[in-house]
Amino acid sequence: MTIASVLTFLSITDFGLAASLTNALGKAQAENAHDVGRRYVSSALFMLSSIALIILIFGSAFAPRITSFLFPHLQSPLARAEIVPAMTIALSIFALNLPLLIPARVLAAHQESALANLWNMAGSLGNLVALLGVIWFRGGLPWLVFGCFGFGLLTNITCAAWLFAFHKPWLSPKFLAIDPAFAKTLFGDGWKFFVIGIGWMINWQTDNMVIAHFLGAAQVTPYAVTFSLFALATGLQTLAYPSLWPAYTEAFAQRDFEWIRQTVRSNFKFSFLSTLAVVGLLSIFAGDIIRFWAGAVAVPPFSVIVWMALWRLMLATLLVGSCLLNATGHLKGMTIYGTITALLNLTLSILLARKYGITGVIAGTVIAYAVANYIPAFLEVRSVLRKMSLP
Questions:
Q1: Cα–Cα distance, 232 to 221 (Å, whole number)
Q2: Burial of 10 by CB count in 10 Å (0-12 exposed, 13-18 middle, 19+ buried)?
Q3: Contacts of 106 (CB under 8 A, 6+ apart)
Q4: Which of 145, 189, 203, 381 is the S-S candidate for 20 at Cβ 3.0 to 4.6 Å?
Q5: Where are the domains of the chain?
């Protein structure tokens, strides 16, 4: 679990290049500019491969120090012997997967997210089978890590070969197609996605840390279980997001503003009403569901359930706006108020946790997002849609 958390934090090391590539390819697709698309793909592959190489070198050199810092109290001689190879394998697989982010982005940019999801499902299923095999044969920790992530890497390699050799050969990366100007364009938006991603990661990853530090590890369970349960309320929005993003980008490049306005309005209404229905049911039955699912010890105070419902309702509609802003390249505002939100969220969560327990943590998140993110985001969305209405 700790190794997986490390890899989650490392996911920002693509510096937003994958997200930036989605927008760039969406515009190229709208203009039917195959050569431009190839240059973007080749330049992105070069930059992500360079980052991957740095991670490989860093991981090989510093894996012992990383594991000593993360696991200072290992007692078992076997665990001490296996933890460094396991961390090295995990970092290596992560690094090799960085350039392989490109195929999924290519498919998304061409509005073929369903194919990307199928490849992802195949990798996840393969990882599960491999993991079960390692457990069955009582493999050590390095094999366990390889079972968790290795088959996914092989699937991503296969997907890349299929995509560039058969499905979209005109986008196949070439060394001569690497273009510093295109790389500069990708990084120009990429650093903004990077900052936005850091803000989201702070907001999503720190709640449990605050609870464990100030309230004790036992309080993490009811918070985390309730958080996971209410995540179901925004499941449809999360699934739609990767498909709507490139669709907005292509429509924006083609100046199909009427379609964008209608889609945003329809998506907002659907997201609000569908989420309201789900959180309404969960607010009534969450206590019983959690008691059956995880035991009485995991049932939170009802105030936590109410704040979780408000959070998911807010998030569902916020995703509608952020999708439009990401897809159309309106990123500067999100880097500013996203950073402010992260700092305010952490501050409020700590202050309110001391007084109101785990209720204060989720209340801090909701208040921070409402004040510093939700209002400015929708003011910006409104401004963008108004500009689209101008002749």
A1: 18
A2: middle
A3: 21, 25, 41, 163, 168, 171
A4: 189
A5: 2-178, 188-389
| CA-closest candidate to residue 3, choices 144, 135, 106, 125 | 144
- Residues 103, 157: Cα–Cα separation, whole Å: 9
Type of residue found at 264: V
Q: How far is CA 325 from CA 97, 238, 329, in A?
A: 27, 16, 6
Contact 194, 47 (CB under 8 A): no
Beta-carbon contacts of residue 147 (< 8 Å; ≥ 6 apart): 127, 130, 131, 132, 133, 134, 135, 139
Q: What are phi and psi of 16, to 5 degrees?
A: 75, 10
Give residue-wise pLDDT tens across range 228-269.
899 888 888 888 888 888 889 888 888 899 999 999 999 999
Contacts 24+ apart (CB under 8 A), 11-14: 11/197, 11/201, 12/194, 12/197, 12/198, 12/201, 13/51, 13/55, 13/98, 14/48, 14/51, 14/98, 14/101, 14/190
The per-residue pLDDT of the chain, averaged, comes to: 86
Render the burial of 198-235: b for 16+ CB within 10 Å, e for the rest.
Answer: bbbebbeebbbebbeebbeeebbbbbbbbbebbeebbe
Give the max Cα distance, the chain. Answer: 72
Is 276 exposed, middle or buried, given 0-12, 13-18 or 19+ CB atoms closer than 10 A?
middle
Q: pTM value?
A: 0.78
